[in-house]
Amino acid sequence: MLKLIQNEWIKIIKRPGTIVMIALIVLLVGVMGTFVKYNENKKDQNADKNWKQTLQIQTAENKKELKSLSKKDPQRPYLEKTIAMNEYRMEHNISPDEKTNVWTFMDVSSSLIILVGLFTIIVSANIVASEFNWGTIKLLLIRPFSRKKIIMSKYITSILFGFAMLFILFLVSNLLGLVLFGTGDGNTSYLAYVDGHVEEQSRLVYSAKLYLLSFIETFMLATMAFMVSTVFRNNTIAIGISILLLTVGNTVTAILAGFFDWTKFILFANTNLMLYVNGTPLVEGMTMTFSVIMLFVYFVIFLGLSLVVFSKRDVTA
After folding, report:
1. pLDDT tens digit sequence for 234-279
2. Domain total for the chain?
3. How far apart are CA 106 and CA 210, in angstroms?
4. Domain annotation covers residue 91
5. What is the pTM of this model?
6. Residue 306 C-alpha from the chain's centroid
7. Which residue from 86, 118, 200, 230 has the highest number of Cβ atoms inside 10 Å of its Cβ?
8. How far apart are CA 271 and CA 242, in angstroms?
9. Residue 74 falls within a domain, yes or no?
10. What integer is the mean pLDDT of 64-75?
């Protein structure tokens, strides 16, 4: 199995597209860092010096609005979180206008995880379908390895590629953030809203959670793309479906969640585990355990179909 994974890695590394993907991540982090640095002075100038008074007014308005909402109103959790955050900031003298530092920059650059997801989906969709397109699948199957080992080595390699891209993004963002903005001064803890109350968390731990948990959606979509490409032997279909779901899946699910409780069983209602870190699940009553179970069920279905189809289907390419 390890030799198969090693061979798949060699194939990926030798492709010019892999170097382009890495270069794009580094380039876009650099562009983002330059943009944030350029606007840093404007942000400091626009900082509200009377932020406590502003938060008091805002909190009073939010409390009035909260009283007028029903218990099932989708806006209610957001207002409760906002009120709790504002009161905690005023009580502990933590300004909402945090000076830019390496941690805030890493939060900003986490928006590029969607790019990592796109690259991972492309690799996952191509890693099996390309063998059929190039006619090399028979050469692969005559080797002294079972079909299950062959397909699993390809799947593991595609997921490891995604984690490698994520690590590159995390590392480059951290290093560039340190160079451009430093570690900051004063209280740089992250304020998280958990189980109805606010708590301070380590920014390093939070950043690691942000990147890893945000990758869950990519992981699941890459697994689905791998399954589709294995079943249909077509990377175009796999990439098209996966990218479409990557871009609109969360939006459509969020709209449905405002009307139907069964939305919690949809894949995209469970991929954003950061909602539990910040204390605002998509559907009332959802828990981290429930979402993990649902993700595991989808994972078993996607990977199970890949294994069954690849193991039993006749290869004519």
Report:
1. 767 777 887 888 778 878 888 887 778 888 888 888 888 877 776 6
2. 1
3. 9
4. no
5. 0.79
6. 23
7. 230
8. 14
9. no
10. 75
